[in-house]
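Long-time lurker, first post. I've been practising inverse folding by hand and with some scripts of my own, and I keep getting stuck on stretches where the structure tokens seem ambiguous. Below is the full token string for one chain I'm working on. Before anyone asks, I'm not after the true native sequence, just a reasonable design that respects the backbone. If someone could post their per-position residues I'd love to compare against what I wrote down in my notebook.
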């Protein structure tokens, strides 16, 4: 990514700070540091006058090396004390995105003039609307996960193991010059309702469900997809439930629009789930944003305060978990624009294989 892109992000964020009571912001979450500097290392300090510093106990490599003040204390285990030594004990409001409880208590005790306030919502509000460049990377990652899922669909057969599926995914994702941001989840048979990975040597038997969930990342930007397959000898009841889950996913997608409320989408989707015969208590998160993280704002759930913004990229498709019976999953990535919603992943949703 270019130096100019990071400069623009910093300028936009500093502009937000100047219109708030917060005078300095400490960002330590890796995805936030990466967003503003291109490096995951260290803790980032941004002040309302535009000064930007990175404090790290490991070497920092950033396109903004000429713009950012880098303080490397190699070998030091704790970075926060160095940051607050730099700030000093003066009357001011300092924002932060995340901070260990013991660190928070220590700062309050040792720097009584400082006022600490969580500002993670301000950061996520800026990160939620993806730039054209970010969308391009997520679009590429979406194409890769779609392709890899289609390959896996062909791999599924009697005796295919969880390890075989994971290897096929990794081989194709790496071959297309993407990364695996986390280990794929492969659940077979009884593991599907437990929502856990099956043992590597667990083979698929006729009449079993296979649930696959994974992501690929391109330059740190993530796309995620999940599918559920039935290897031969399908059960009508499970197929019916799967079709209901797809209907729910499509309904949630139809509600996405710029400036819509995430919690109102959740409420309407929950009512629709009951209307078509799904128990909402058996369903996981209805939707969540993706970007530099697999789960970021906006969240479509009962407690969300998020507003859907133009340029939001959202994973839609709640898992359905019926303890003692089975688990189902079908999710895709969508881009929200002023012109409507664009589906970025396109792997076949047909459940029966073999």
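-- Answer (accepted) --
I ran through it position by position. Result:
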């Amino acid at each position: 990514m270019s130096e100019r892109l990071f400069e623009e992000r910093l300028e936009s964020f500093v502009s937000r700070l100047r219109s708030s009571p917060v005078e300095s912001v400490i960002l330590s979450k890796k995805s936030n540091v990466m967003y503003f500097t291109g490096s995951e290392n260290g803790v980032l300090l941004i002040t309302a006058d535009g000064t930007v510093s990175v404090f790290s106990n490991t070497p920092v490599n950033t396109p903004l090396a000429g713009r950012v003040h880098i303080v490397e204390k190699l070998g030091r285990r704790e970075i926060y004390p160095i940051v607050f030594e730099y700030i000093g004990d003066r009357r001011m409001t300092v924002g932060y995105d995340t901070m260990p409880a013991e660190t928070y208590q220590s700062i309050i005790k040792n720097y009584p003039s400082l006022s600490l306030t969580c500002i993670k919502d301000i950061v996520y509000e800026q990160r939620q609307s993806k730039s054209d460049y970010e969308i391009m990377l997520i679009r590429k990652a979406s194409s890769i996960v779609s392709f890899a899922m289609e390959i896996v669909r062909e791999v599924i057969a009697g005796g295919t193991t969880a390890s075989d599926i994971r290897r096929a995914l990794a081989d194709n994702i790496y071959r297309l010059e993407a990364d695996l941001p986390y280990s794929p989840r492969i659940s077979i048979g009884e593991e599907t309702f437990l929502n856990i990975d099956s043992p590597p040597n667990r083979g698929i038997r006729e009449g079993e469900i296979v649930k696959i969930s994974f992501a690929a990342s391109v330059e740190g930007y993530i796309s995620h997809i999940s599918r559920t397959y039935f290897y031969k000898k399908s059960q009508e009841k499970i197929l019916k439930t799967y079709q209901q889950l797809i209907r729910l996913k499509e309904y949630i997608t139809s509600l996405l629009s710029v400036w819509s409320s995430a919690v109102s989408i959740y409420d309407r989707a929950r009512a629709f789930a009951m209307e078509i015969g799904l128990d909402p208590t058996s369903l996981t998160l209805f939707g969540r944003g993706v970007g530099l993280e697999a789960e970021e704002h906006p969240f479509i759930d009962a407690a969300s305060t998020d507003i859907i913004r133009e340029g939001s990229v959202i994973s839609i498709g709640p898992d359905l978990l019926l303890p003692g019976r089975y688990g189902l999953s079908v999710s895709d990535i969508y881009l929200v624009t002023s012109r409507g919603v664009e589906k970025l992943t396109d792997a076949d949703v047909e459940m029966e294989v073999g």
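A couple of notes from the structure itself: Residues 285 and 318 are 5 Å apart (CA to CA). The longest strand covers residues 221-231. Happy to go over any region you disagree with.
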